[in-house]
Amino acid sequence: MIVGFQQCAKFERFFQTFRLVNVIPFLNLVLAGFVLASIAARFIFPSVSLEGRTLWLLKSSPLPMPDLLWAKFWVGTLPLLLLALGIVVVTNILLQVSDFMFAVSLMTMTLMTLALCGMALGFGTLFPQFETENAAQIPTSFGGLLYMIAAIGLIAGVVVLEARPVYGYISAKYYNTPVEPTEMMIGFGLAALLCVAMTIIPIGVAKRRLEAVER
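Now predict its structure.
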C-alpha cells in the first residue's frame, strides 16, 4: 500500500516536471511561431509585390536576382530573429526552464524563424499582387492563405520531430538512465533539415519565378 502511494507520488512529480520543462516551453515555441508567421506574412510576404511596376528597374540593374531576393530575406529576417530570440529568452527565464530546454528553444526558434521568413518570401513571389493599391490586402490574398497553412504545417512538423527526443532526455535525467544519442540526433537532425530546406527551397523557387516573369 505504502509502495503504491510512493509510486503514485513519484509519477505525479514526474508529470509536473515533464509539464513544466517540456510542454510549456513547446507551447511557447508554437505561440511564438504563430506570432512570427503573422509578422512575416505582413512585412516579408508583400516585399516583392510592393515593387509593382518598378520591378523592371531592378531587373535591368547589375544586381543579380538571387542577391536581390537574399537581400530582401535578410532585411526582413534579422529584426524578426531578434524579436524571436528575445521572446524565447525572456519567457524561458520567467519559466526557469532547464539548460537543455533553453538551448533547444534557442536553436529551434532560430531555425524556425529562418524557415518562416524564407517561406514568406517564396510564397509572396509565387503569388504576387503587383496591381494592388493597398499593401494591407496582399497578406489576405490566396497566396497569403497558403503561406499561413504551410507555416502552421512547418511549426507542427518541428514540434512533433523534437517532442520524442526531448521526452527521452527528460525521462533519462529523471530516472538516471543513459540518454539515447541516436534518438536525439535523428529527431533534432530531421527538424533542422526541415527548417533549412524550407529556407532555401522557397527562395530558389522565387528566383525561378522572377526569371520567368522577366521572360
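The helical segments are 2-43, 55-60, 65-95, 99-126, 142-175, 181-214.
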